[in-house]
Automatic annotation (TrEMBL):
This is Carbohydrate ABC transporter ATP-binding protein (CUT1 family). Coiled coil: none annotated. One of its GO terms (cellular component) is ATP-binding cassette (ABC) transporter complex, substrate-binding subunit-containing. InterPro entries: AAA+_ATPase, ABC_transporter-like_ATP-bd, ABC_transporter-like_CS, ABC_transpr_MalK/UgpC-like, Mo/tungstate-bd_C_term_dom, P-loop_NTPase. It comes from Martelella mediterranea.
Length: 391
């Protein structure tokens, strides 16, 4: 276990700023995910933590000890890559033992083949096998120990790669998109296994993924990067319900959040051609509402939101996707026909729903997220205006 602090990490390649001052404090034993779109700098940051890459400026501390200029080996960090990087000619047991064998060999014997057949490697092996067996049991791969990587499924290979990283008893475990080569069903399985592994090992995990669902389901906290900048770091529920800006709201949540342009006057708001009995305390002008698909309640088909001040908007559907337990309805509000909107509707016991083409929807003002013209979240919620009386 170890605490990891990143302080103002900067890195550029060929004059392009890839990381623009990233500061994150990863707690001892925490599972932190780094998420963001392809090219935002996630892997570069992970490589900098591991020591494979050197930052242009900034500092890395492990348990309060500066390690920025230390070699990877001295950091007691293990890393699992998306392509597993197993030795194809070695058995699972040999693959898993290799980091321990290598650590005990003199430098000249560390080449994979030389290391494998050298007398020093053979001497080191007996006391290593107990450790390998223990980790294999933890990962439930004992029955695979004599196979070679080519004789394993993707999920099994992934477990071997995890095992190989774990045998060294690292303080920090780094993973770079470890599930991306697995099919969807297996991804969910291994996702659960990694979460269990984290809980059982108590290690500090830093996990890179571009898949927000993966990050949300596995992590204690999620750090969202965009173009080399840290947009927000927080618990999954916090990023979902309390995003700092439009980019975070857009990236987190599937299906994606809806955005609606609105104009605020002192005593009402306007959405397209409809007046809404809402106002923003002391603020007028152009804003954007963020509205999660499950916060739009089709009247008569879903329970009304528990709010005394729901607003009612007519909706016209264009496409309905039946996901079995729920419907994902695409369409637009009549007040704003040019803006696509997604609505999630739970089905009662999977029964089919006969949705008309147009129906009313109910929305609780408390469920509206408000963003200013720069995309920054405004913490205040829209206030109801009742029959011309400002509440
Ligand atoms: N050694 C390097 N030399 C030059 N450019 C690099 C180098 N490593 C990374 N880059 C560039 O830095 C940017 C960020 O790369 P990085 O791999 O960190 O992104 P990422 O967020 O992990 O993306 P992905 O999800 O696609 O792996 C990319 O534009 C990449 O081309």
């Amino acid at each position: 276990m170890a605490r990891l602090q990143l302080k103002s990490i900067r890195k550029s390649f060929d004059g392009n700023d890839i990381l623009k001052g990233i500061s994150i404090d990863v707690k001892d034993g925490e599972f932190l995910s780094l998420v963001g779109e392809s090219g935002c700098g996630k892997s570069t940051l992970l490589r900098i933590i591991s020591g494979l890459e050197v930052p242009d400026s900034g500092e890395i501390l492990i348990d309060d000890r500066p390690v920025t200029s230390e070699a990877p080996k001295a950091r007691n960090i293990a890393m699992v890559f998306q392509d597993y990087a197993l030795y194809p000619h070695m058995t699972v047991a040999e693959n898993m033992a290799m980091p321990l064998i290598m650590a005990r060999l003199p430098l000249h014997a560390r080449l994979p083949l030389a290391g494998r057949f050298s007398p020093a490697a053979r001497r080191a092996r007996p006391d290593i096998s107990d450790k390998v067996r223990a980790v294999a049991a933890q990962l439930r791969i004992e029955h695979l120990m004599e196979r070679r990587p080519g004789q394993l499924s993707g999920g099994q290979r992934q477990r071997v790669a995890l095992g190989r990283a774990l045998v060294r008893d690292p303080g920090i475990f780094l993973m770079d998109e470890p599930l991306s080569n697995l099919d969807a069903k297996l991804r969910v399985e291994v996702r659960k296994e990694i979460t269990e592994l984290h809980a059982a090992s108590g290690l500090t995990f830093v996990y890179v993924t571009h898949d927000q669902t993966e990050a949300m389901t596995m992590s204690d906290r999620v750090a969202l990067l965009q173009k080399g900048t840290l947009l927000q770091v927080g618990a999954p529920g916090q990023l979902y319900a309390d995003p700092a800006n439009i980019e975070v709201a857009r990236f987190i949540g599937s299906p994606e959040i809806n955005f609606l342009p609105v104009e605020a006057a002192s005593d009402m708001m306007r959405l397209g051609n409809q007046h809404l009995p809402l106002r923003l305390s002391g603020r007028t002008g152009g804003f954007t509402f963020g509205l999660r698909p499950e916060a739009i309640h089709p009247a008569g088909f879903a329970a009304a939101p528990a709010s005394a001040d729901t607003i009612r908007l007519s909706f016209r559907r264009t496409l309905v996707e039946d996901l079995g337990h729920e419907l994902l309805i695409h369409g637009a509000f009549a007040a704003l026909p040019e803006t696509d909107v997604r609505v999630r509707l739970q089905k009662s016991h999977g029964r089919p729903l006969d949705l008309p083409e147009s129906f009313d929807t109910l929305i609780a003002p408390e469920d509206l997220l408000v963003f200013d013209e720069f995309g920054k979240r405004i913490q205040q919620k829209p206030l109801p205006v009742r029959q011309g009386v400002v509440a």
